[in-house]
Amino acid sequence: MTTKRRNGGKNRCGRGHVNTVRCSNCNRCVPKDKAIKRFVVRNMIESAAQRDLKDASVYEAYTVPKLYLKMEYCVSCAIHAHVVRGRSGVARRVREPPVRVRAGERRPDSGKPMKGVKRSQRSLVNRNRIVEP
Description:
By secondary structure, the chain is α+β, with helices and mostly antiparallel strands. The protein is built from 3 helices and 4 strands. The strands form 2 sheets. It has a two-stranded antiparallel ribbon. The N and C termini lie far apart (about 55 Å).
């Protein structure tokens, strides 16, 4: 019988059983090796309230503490929340992780010159382009 994934959607590597964890979104029981895990680091206070806090604070150099969360999702919630995306059969065979782009870094050239340009601007660029017969 054909298989959809090489690992069967799990990462238990020869173990027969693994403990379960609860999905952070819907609280569903998911095997720990199958759950999609993301480590989220964010400020305890959002940026809008951070300015108000800085104005009202007595201290001049106060760093707001960070919130460290390990989010574990079931497959359905991860797809629904766009944490992961479904891939085609050919793309599913690719095992290396995608290129990570951190904040402030330039994105790699995708070969699409109009990517990131608004639709209204695309038409202006196309009109100004000189077409030679």
